[in-house]
Design a protein that fits this description.
Chain lengths: 602, 61, 142
């Protein structure tokens, strides 16, 4: 913005200067000239009316015209006033108490301009520039500062240097906002007919730090050819807030709280990225939505278009989706747009995810990952607690031959094993859509072998049932980690020997049916028994949304059998309702396992 | 003459009935929308009363 | 003791009287209580805190198709214009996803456009006085 309004101002001022110096005449009291249109590389000017008033002690300049900068579609009328116009000798001009006004800009200024065949210099003090385009997405308010520029011509080459100090005011240039003044920019270089060369540019940004840059710009097309930018020990928070966040706003990294120091360098050669390096020193990164955090991050991420680079990333701790991450050191090779690593170990709770033969590629603005994964056993109790699941005892372990992540979809070929309640749960066909997004869906198929009911019922204080269960959960679908669909069926293992169910467990299963049913058992002689033998226990549920279509070990004309008794006395538990709301069922189980409504029978 | 018209009208009705497919439950959709919007915008009953004073609100539209 | 005396097979049936959800099949209500819809609602509810003041200032308005748009960024101080486009884009992404999820939750993915239409009218009807909405291509103040 600053640049474009200055350009506007300069082109008009130069036109005015040229005109004024050539028309200088002391005998007249005022000069008035109208110009139809002027074309310049910066844009067009039309309907220009110069008026120089020489009557007072100090001459005044009024210029009314319409300008069409190359970037704009329409002509913008503007007015330029110099309250005091001084020009002692040809080539020197002072415009004091100046004011540039148009529909989009209001810029009070004072300028000193020197223009000679081999020299151009100006010094502009601006005192409260306001600027806004029609959308308000490119705007400045109350800019106070000064711009100095000097250029000298020697053997067809202009040597130049410039300095911009910005003392007050704010700028919004979608998507960037520079709110705090106190920034300064200085640069020097040379220019010939082909190139504008910046030899050393120094940009001091408040809250971030100092950056250095060099570059070569095509004089005609304004295309950047060679650029080198270098920033050492800048404030990572300032860098993120000011420059990174606006461009990452809608990505996973768009709402972070960060701290630490960063080194940053970037080079372009022949208009192509050539190399890059980002170093983070003791940085902390936390997602405001609580999806992930990494603490005490040290990273060195170099990249070169031609030469493969080794990158490293370390952090002391953190979390990912509520799962605590341990100290981690990752090393990988970055080869143009591909990343490879023989092994990446990600400590998680008491175990680790061990990624092997990792390869990733950056294609069409998306990352594609392929890897193998070994699980170093993770305690299931801590894992289920961290995810807010019902607490489970056991371990997660396994080997996954192929994990892929592409277009926000994570999928696994191969099985993961959960050693849970003394039995085994195998998980296959795992797929997670958009794991860090607003709507996350997970799909999997589970197979259950020899789940120990004694451990399970003890953990949940349900009343002891002895025996083992086999079964499967097919087509499991979790929406935001809540089950919305599955076909589950669990029943007593075929070769199971010890099959006993306690009085209390029978009561509790019955209590799932509502208040009152438990009392029925106590009214009979059965209350004298602590345990009953059973032949089979089984339950099945076809879940669709919240509705479970229930079944048991066998169907009866009115319902299904959940516990089929054996021996004397034999207790059968039957279910009659084939449609059960999962929410209702879970809240009843919770009430029972919380122990609030248990009727203790002794 | 009139009977002919009646037959045509009846025929028209019949074909109209046949072409009706699954209808979109517009009223239910509006109810669903209301429910979600109230949650997102945190409009409780009191606020609802305040935002729907019939005459004044429509007049300022 | 007792069971010895009674040498017959005793079978005790306990009925599980789970609540049946009669509502589900009766009324033609649309299903809107799914984890995905709830997650979207939460996300939008959290964002609404930031959006509400923009609706009031007129910086952002409600479009005729059930989304939102930047109407006049100039209504805001410069520093508040930061992220306004991203805010609108995120909200619109959630809204579009919401219409899709409502259609999917009711097993009629093809209803998405009709659901979006139904929402479009309701957002505007429920908007507070002073907020802007789009009607026939022009912004109107409610």
């Amino acid at each position: 913005m600053v640049a474009s309004s200055i350009k506007q101002f300069l082109s008009t001022l130069l036109l005015a200067t040229l005109f004024f110096t050539s028309q200088m005449a002391y005998a007249v009291s005022s000069i008035q000239v109208s110009v139809g249109s002027i074309d310049s590389p910066l844009g067009q000017i039309k309907d220009a009316q110069f008026h120089v008033d020489l009557k007072g002690k100090k001459p005044k300049l009024n210029l009314i015209a319409a300008v069409k900068p190359q970037s704009e579609p329409d002509f913008i009328p503007f007015k330029l006033v110099c309250g005091t116009l001084l020009s002692g000798r040809a080539g020197y001009i002072d415009c004091l108490d100046g004011q540039l006004t148009s529909s989009i800009v209001n810029a009070p200024f004072s300028a000193h301009v020197t223009q000679q065949p081999t020299q151009l210099s100006f010094d502009i003090l601006f005192n409260g520039i306001n600027f806004s385009d029609a959308t308000g997405l490119h705007a400045a308010e109350g800019l106070v500062g000064d711009l100095q520029f000097n250029a000298k011509k020697k053997n067809a080459v202009w040597q130049w240097d410039g300095q911009l100090n910005w003392d007050e005011g704010e700028v919004f240039w979608e998507p960037f906002y520079f709110g705090d003044a106190g920034s300064a920019f200085s640069a020097k270089g040379y220019a010939n007919t082909k190139y504008i060369v910046v030899e050393d540019a120094r940009l001091l940004v408040k809250d971030v730090g100092e950056m250095h840059a060099m570059g070569k710009i095509d004089a005609k097309t304004k295309q950047l050819f060679d650029v080198k930018v270098n920033a050492q020990q800048v404030d990572f928070d300032g860098l993120y807030t000011l420059l990174l966040k606006p461009t990452l706003e809608r990505s996973t990294f768009g709402s972070l709280v960060v701290s630490g120091k960063a080194n940053w360098q970037f080079a372009m050669k022949d208009a192509q990225p050539a190399n890059f390096q980002l170093k983070l020193m003791d940085a902390n990164i936390e997602d405001k939505n609580g999806k992930f955090a990494f603490n005490h991050v040290n990273a060195n991420i170099p990249w070169d278009y031609d030469i493969p680079q080794n990158i490293s990333l370390e952090y002391e701790n953190g979390y990912l989706l509520n799962l605590p991450l341990g100290q981690t050191k990752l090393k990988a090779e970055l080869n143009r747009y591909a990343l490879t690593a023989p092994e990446l170990v990600l400590p998680l709770l008491d175990g680790a995810l061990c990624f092997k033969d990792v390869s990733a590629a950056w294609l069409g603005k998306n990352w594609f990952w392929h890897l193998r994964m070994d699980l170093i056993p993770i305690d299931l109790n801590q894992f289920s607690t961290a995810l807010g699941w019902p607490v489970m005892e056991g371990q997660i372990s396994g080997q996954v031959p192929l994990v892929t992540y592409a277009s926000k979809q994570l999928s696994m070929d191969g099985a993961m094993t959960f050693n849970v309640f003394d039995g085994t749960v195998g998980m296959k066909n795992l797929r997670i859509d958009d794991p860090l997004g607003v709507v996350t869906r997970m799909y999997a198929d589970l197979t259950v072998w020899k789940l120990d009911l004694a451990e399970l019922t003890r953990t949940y204080r349900f009343g002891v049932i002895e025996g083992k269960l086999d079964g499967d959960v097919k087509g499991l679908e979790l929406e935001n980690w809540k089950a919305v669909k599955f076909d589950a069926s669990l029943q007593t293992s075929a070769d199971d020997q010890r099959k006993k169910i306690s009085q209390r467990a029978v009561e509790n299963i019955a209590a799932l049916g509502g208040e009152g049913t438990a009392a029925a058992l106590q009214r009979t002689f059965l209350r004298f028994f602590d345990n009953f033998n059973y032949d089979k226990i089984g339950i099945s549920c076809k879940l669709r949304r919240d509705m479970c279509e229930m079944g048991g070990v066998a169907a009866t004309p009115e319902g299904y059998i959940i516990v089929k008794g054996s021996g004397i006395p034999s207790v059968n538990v039957n279910g009659y309702n084939k449609q059960v709301s999962l929410t209702d069922l879970l809240s009843r189980i919770k009430r029972i396992t919380d122990g609030n409504s248990i009727v203790i029978v002794k | 003459m009139t009977s002919k018209i009646a037959v045509v009208a009846l025929f028209g009705l019949l074909t109209a009935c046949v072409t009706i497919n699954i209808y979109f439950p517009a009223a239910a959709a509006q109810e669903a929308a209301d429910q979600i919007i109230d949650d997102v915008w945190q409009i409780d009953d009191e606020a609802k009363k305040a935002t729907t004073p019939d005459a004044e609100a429509t007049a300022t539209k | 003791m007792i069971q010895l005396g009674m040498k017959q097979f005793i079978s005790y049936f306990l009925g599980l009287m789970f609540l049946t959800m009669s509502v589900v099949h009766a009324a033609p209500n649309l299903e809107v209580n799914t984890p995905a819809i709830n997650a979207l609602k939460n996300s939008m509810q959290a964002r609404h805190t930031a959006l509400a003041s923009h609706y009031e200032s007129g910086a952002i308005g409600l479009t005729a198709n059930g989304l939102i748009a930047v109407r006049d960024a100039k209504a805001l101080p410069l520093k508040d214009r930061r992220g306004i486009n991203a805010l609108v884009a995120s909200e619109n992404s959630d809204r579009s996803r919401l219409y899709k999820e409502v259609a999917v939750a009711n097993s009629h993915p093809e209803w998405e456009a009709s659901i979006q239409d139904a929402f479009a009218g309701r957002w505007i009807d429920k908007a507070q006085g002073g907020w802007y909405y789009q009607s026939a291509g022009a912004w109107q103040k409610k």
